[in-house]
Amino acid sequence: MKPSTRMTTGLVLGALVAGTLLMQTAAATGEAPPTAWFWLAAIMLAGLAVQSIRRMAALDGARLYGLLTAALFGVWVVYFWQLLVVAFEVPRVLLPPPSLIAQSIGTHWPTLWGDFVQTVLKAVLIGWTLGSGLGFAVAVAIDRLPFLQRGLLPLASLTSTIPLVAVAPIAVMWFGFDWQSKAAVVVLMTFFPMLTSTLAGLKASGKLERELMYSYAASYSRTLLALRLPAALPFMFGALKVNATLALIGAIVAEFFGSPTAGLGFRISTEASRMHMPLVWAAIVVAAVTGSVAYAVLVQIERRAAFWHPSVRGR
Amino acid sequence: MGTMTDTAFKRGVAEFRRQGVPVAAMLLLVLLAWYGGTWALNAPGAIERVLPPDGAWTWQDLLAATMDMQRPVLPAPHQVALDFWSSLVDWPLDSPRNLMYHVAVTAESTLWGFVMGTILGLVLSVCIVHSRTLDRALLPWIVASQTVPVLAIAPIVLVILGSLGFSGVAPKAVIAMYLCFFPVTVAMVQGLRSPQVIETEMMHTYAASRWQALWLLRLPSALPFLFPALRVGIAAGLVGAMVAELPTGAVAGLGARLLTGSYYGNTIQIWSALVMSALLGLALTSVVALVERAMLRHRHQP
Fold first, then answer.
1. Residues contacting B153, CB < 8 A, separation 6+
2. Between the CA of residue A313 and those of A234, A282, A295, B32, B153, what are the distances in Å?
3. Per-residue pLDDT tens digits for B194-214
4. Most buried of A87, A108, A260, A269 (most Cβ within 10 A)?
5. What is the mean pLDDT of residues A44-57?
6. Interatomic CA distance for residues A93 and A171, integer angstroms
7. In this complex, do B156 and A277 lie within 8 Å of one another by their Cβ atoms?
8. Chain B: nearest CA to A269, how far in angstroms?
9. Which residue, among B158, B186, B231, B243, would best test binding to A if mutated, counting the most A CBs under 10 Å from its CB?
10. B156/A160 CB distance under 8 A
């Protein structure tokens, strides 16, 4: 059976309309206990939703369809989360409905913005820039010193297996409770990935190209700037992307170990211990959106900077 | 035979010269820098609190004082080593003062989480590879989760499982589990898809069933993808297990040890817990690496 685009669109839209209608009933808004009819409608809607996702996934062609399928799936997950949590009257401590989380983002926006500034704009951004910059600088500096490279590389790659974030208590002791200690943890966590990736990237240029530079009598720095650093760009962007996630984790977890009265990690841990779960979820949404946006921004920059590279051109 | 062991020996020596000497030099440098840092960071405190206030001390006194502080800003390496050693030797294994006790607690939840997360990731990746719907609807979300600090929901998991009545190992293992699960799933989907078209077509001409194709072709070719993910996963799981020990009730485990150390300002205890967690991380990943080497020994390197 070849699924047609028109049929699928109709099915998807029909399911969404039916879902909107069901959301208006008293049981879905929590005003009345759910009836047997409500459950019947919910089960039928679930079948309709699954069918529409399956149809959509079966469509061939444009890349857009893949994204739309994932988006549709996400929409239905959130929808049934809302519907079932309200209908079953799940305690808020266990799982607040998405509407309550959205409402919490709205009402606590000033608090969350303060947390965002404290954690992301101060600790993460400064720590990520310093850590990645230092990793890059050290890699370029020891590029001509194979002895140091052979000594440093095995140790640097071992650090990925060590829970580096555990230095947070020491960082707090040295740099105080404020963002400086979190930035220090982030510097430590982001330094080594950047160092190892840049060193690997500097070796990535082809022998043929290097020999060509040699035949031009190009100096070391000229070869570095014109050939080897551009060839290392994909490696460096890989590390920058990994580091963005690592930096967020580092800053948030470091705040679990002690922080001033602001910050996403502080918000998550204190509000969780006060059983104020909608706000905890709201802080997590902020952290998740930050991580995804940072990644997307880095991918865009990579496309501009390394547009010629096969790994970018293919996309 | 003799010449063969001889060349192997020579190769070993050459390898050590190439790798071992620089690494040893680097470690020595780190140690020297550590001692230098100990002296520099502890000097103000030593002058203020330990040395006689009338200024009647020599630099040797200062050096000795900085290396032997009660609560140093940065403990000297030998202080950490001594504390580390005495915690292992002077106390029975089941005493909270023995670091091995905390290692056992943390390793237990890490390993449970690792095993569960790996199994879950394997099962889900097999489902994703065989279902176009899951591939298109679910996989993008799992891939996207790699860019999100998923560790941040650890406190929520603790609250939910706590109010459902779970305590002890279970909540910590669940956190380690979901941290292992994501990298394993992503890598296994990639690995299960790695066979060439010509190989899958050959399985097809043999009239191999889906299960046979999975067992004989897809799983073996996914192994080189699986093991790096397992190394990442077990390291992430260790961090998760340590973070899970932090909230109230932090009594046992390396994470709890770090936190109590920072409550009481006991820097030497923090540092030895830190060294121990680094060693645990190294041990866990090298076990995975050993299994990897044993299982992939007979493969050609491409």
1. A284
2. 12, 37, 18, 48, 36
3. 888 888 888 889 888 888 888
4. A269
5. 88
6. 33
7. yes
8. 6
9. B243
10. no
CB pairs under 8 A between A and B: 170
Task: Give the closest residue to B176 by CA, choosing from B53, B281, B90, B47.
Answer: B281
- pLDDT-based confidence at residue B5 (cuts at 50, 70, 90): low
Q: Which of A241-245, B18-22, B35-39 has the highest mean pLDDT?
A: A241-245
Question: Would you identify the CATH topology of the domain A106-313?
Answer: MetI-like fold (1.10.3720)
pLDDT, average across residues A223-235 = 91
Residue type, A155: L
Residue of B nearest to A264 (CA): B152
The single residue listed with the structure tokens 């230092």 is: A134
Distance from CA of A76 to the nearest CA of B (A): 11
**Spatial CB neighbours of B230, under 8 Å, sequence gap ≥ 6:** B114, B118, B180, B184, B288, B292
**Residue B71: other Cβ atoms inside 10 A:** 14
Q: Which residues of A touch B261 (CB under 8 A)?
A: 169
Maximal CA-CA distance, chain A: 84
Q: What is the ipTM of this complex?
A: 0.85
Nearest-by-Cβ selection for B285 from A72, A161, A280? A161
CB contact under 8 A, B282 and A158: yes
Q: Side chain identity at B54, as an amino acid letter? A: D
Domain ranges of chain A: 5-89, 106-313
Residue B60 has pLDDT above 90, yes or no: no
d(C-alpha A265, C-alpha A116), whole Å: 10
Option in B132, B147, B258 nearest A166 (CB): B258
A77 burial level (CB within 10 Å; 0-12, 13-18, 19+): middle
Listed in sequence order, the residues at least 6 apart from B172 whose beta carbon sits closer than 8 Å to its beta carbon are B109, B113, B240, B241, B244, B245, B253
Tokens of A256: 């679990």
Which residues of chain A lie closer than 8 angstroms to B246, CB-CB? 256-257, 269
